[in-house]
Amino acid sequence: MANDTTPILEMRGITKTFPGVKALSDVTLSVARGEVHAICGENGAGKSTLMKVLSGVYPHGTYEGDIVFEGETCRFRTTRDSEERGIVIIHQELALSPYLSIAENIFLGNERAKGGVINWAQTNRQAADLLKRIGLDEQPDTKVMDIGVGKQQLVEIAKALSKRVKLLILDEPTAALNDEDSAHLLELLRSLKAEGITSIIISHKLNEIAAIADSTTIIRDGQSIETLAMHGAEPVSEDRIIRSMVGRDLEHRYPDHVSTVGEEILRIENWTVHHPNDPNRIVVDDASLNVRAGEIVGIAGLMGAGRTELAMSVFGHSYGSGITGKLFLHGKPVSIKNVSAAIEHGIAYATEDRKHYGLNLIEDIKRNTTAARLTKIARAGVVNSAKEITIADRFRKDMRTKTPSVDVQVGKLSGGNQQKVVLSRWLFAEPEVLILDEPTRGIDVGAKYEIYEIINKLADSGKAVIVISSELPELLGICDRIYAMSQGRITGQLPRAEASQEGLMRYMTMEKSGATR
Amino acid sequence: MSASTTLPAPASSPGSGKKTTEGGSLAAYLGGNLKQYAMIAALVVITLWFQFDTDGLMLLPNNVVSLIQQNAYVFILTIGMVMIIVAGHIDLSVGSVVAFVGGICGLMIMQWDISWPLAVVLSVILGGVVGAWQGFWVAYVGIPAFIVTLGGMLLFRGLAINYVGTTVGGLPSDFNALANGALPNSLGFIGNLDTVTVVIGALAALGLLVSQFRTRRELIRNDLRTEPFAAFVGKLVVGVAAIGYLTWLLANSAGGMPIVLIIVGVLVLLYSFIMNNTIFGRHIYAMGGNLPAAMLSGVKTKRVNFLLFVNMGLLAGVAAVITTARAGSAVAAAGQNYELDAIAAAFIGGTAVNGGVGKITGAIIGALIMGVLNMGLSITNVRPEWQMVIKGLVLIAAVAFDILNKRRGK
Prior knowledge:
The complex is a heterodimer of chains A (517) and B (410).
Chain A: E1 9-18, E2 21-31, E3 36-40, H1 47-55, E4 64-69, E5 72-74, H2 79-84, E6 87-90, H3 102-106, E7 113-114, E8 117-118, H4 120-134, H5 149-162, E9 167-171, H6 179-194, E10 198-202, H7 206-212, E11 215-220, E12 223-229, H8 238-246, E13 264-274, E14 282-292, E15 296-301, H9 307-314, E16 321-329, E17 332-333, H10 339-344, E18 347-350, H11 354-358, H12 365-370, E19 378-379, E20 382-383, H13 385-399, H14 415-428, E21 433-437, H15 445-460, E22 464-468, H16 472-478, E23 481-486, E24 489-495, H17 501-508
Helix pairs in contact in A: 4-5, 13-14
Chain B: H1 3-6, H2 26-32, H3 34-53, H4 61-86, H5 94-110, H6 116-141, H7 145-164, H8 173-180, E1 189-190, E2 193-194, H9 195-221, H10 229-252, H11 259-277, H12 279-289, H13 291-296, H14 301-327, H15 338-348, H16 360-379, H17 384-409
Antiparallel strand pairs in B: 1-2
Helix pairs in contact in B: 3-16, 4-10, 4-11, 4-12, 4-14, 4-15, 4-16, 5-6, 5-7, 5-14, 6-7, 6-14, 8-14, 9-10, 11-12, 15-16, 15-17
């Protein structure tokens, strides 16, 4: 519990301007010693910028305002300066070297060495101690690429601890984690708190914030709106935080929608997929499912359940090897062995990883919009640029993508707006079946609502929609029917009326006997 | 083209009060296009420097003609190289391919009694076949292009030495004129100026004006960002003046319009169009920008890669013909370091080291910078070893400027 002495960190009147944009405007943040302090805000509100100011990514002099840490005004010029004072930031994208061992990663840039020669005994022993402290049951010499993303997150924390961290900053630490790993991480934060380590956590997941934070500062449009004490007289509800984040009431988090379900469009039967590099490993095991026109079907599952692998293998065998099983479109068996054939057959897949598999970030909006079906606006291989602009602009308006024009680089857009470009691309391809993999990952609450509305509109226009999501409330909120996957198999299917988080979770954790992995 | 009616008053388009469509102040606009203008500025500064340093020798009409003829192979090769690099590959073999194809071209004409026009066509096709060989390994087997073309560098040099052996000389003068000759002065002279050259220059200037006004009108009609009107007009004035000056120089030269400049000009226009306006071009940029995303958008990446190398081979075939014609003989040692010239031109011209970004016109400017350096240093009697040192430093400086400029922009 936060004690009443001076705060460990005070940021006063922080203003940070980029050419043409005021990213932060007179932001105040006060963090008490030993607390878990959450920072909430929509994407693009300025949370990450604020943390970059604090950690010295933006050096002193490039912003206005004061940073007072442990009573001293700090002028960090690099992240090294802030780390020396005990402020360590763990970024959304993990900064680990996959081919190095856990121990090497922990002490990277901070090696246990004498005269430039590494002391391996000390390295591994201290790493083992740190791993024990964070409750990670792995050997220090295991390569980082051989452990899951949840454990990698813990290695990052171990690395921070090795630097004698006093203030730990986590930027969206659970965004890529499944529920189990997330729970473990939160538990770890609690025990670190017991050791006296203060943390700042940036998160979109309000239930997590409610569970762990002692106080929550809300940032909206580059300004600090308010700081809520989470353990005050009256409990702070999620809706209360959302209202403050978006500056308006969100009556419902999911739009009302009644689907008009038509004929079956896509069906797969006995679909089995093997790992691309290890043909003996079964990733999707004898899966069967169908989706009808106007229907929104969800696929629930924990990380590694095979949801993305299933979707991508259906999308023109873009994942996996040794794929067997039948695929029917409108009841007729079809064979679709590459992505362009899948697109021609009216299947679209919007990836869960926009930045790496979805968008060409150095290209502009219009070219990203038309990328999947250039033939539609081309004659004899020559693209009609005027038509392209018109089309991209129509999607910009329909989707309410926030951008001055369609020749803006996609890399400069916020997550929500990038996702709208991804959706524009796949709508432009005019699919009948639209597979959306984590369509709202890393997107703020307001934009999520808009994405849901777009999904509903798609279903209303007669498209068959499959939504893969790790957020069960989201699936329950928008889907007509939900499949659950576990260990590559489809373990259950529930209509919306009968589905609950608990029910789905039971299917999602169902073990199979004689599992191959 | 009624240019006057399409003249957009600078204040008329942002009538909505949004300044996002009009590029803001001139200074801001120049800042955003710094790289592009820095390259052109560098070219101008280097040229003027040598012009003064050599007391005007640099820009004598006949020197300008030989600058174009000497560097024709770089212009041709760098077109293909930009495309390869934008897609995220590299081609180290083009110098050896030039020697191999050029050698076979010489053999075809001198020993196999094939007429030279047919030999030219067959040589370009042979280049394409060589490209298909390399493209096969890169695209369908998945060997990195660096390795395949490193192998190709040895392979085709070896074949060239084996088949061409000593020099195959005595090529017909009509053939040699492809590289060294000029268009016939069939329209007579205006004073001292070759009329054919003047006509072509005028057409080029007109073409520039028409295409620029069209593009601008299209942008404004769609409410897209345009450069400030002052910059637009300034650019056109400079462009027309440059074409005019070059035309004047060429028309004053001994021969008139070099044939090879026509070849290069057509290739530059054709490939700029391919890169900007065709699906194939789009797919190249898409793959260089984000390969997995391009795959998942249905781009047939293997086919694009294959075609890229076939295309590079075809252009290497053209370059081989020009190189052989320029020398008047086929030599197994031809084309030494041509790959480095082409790669350097592409990078100096602003092609991104990691792919995804690059323009053919930029690479041509890069090639011109290197060419002017070559010629200027030679005229001023700088020793070849120091020429190499200087060119190496220029390459590093150009890419460093690019990277620092990008960092500053963030």
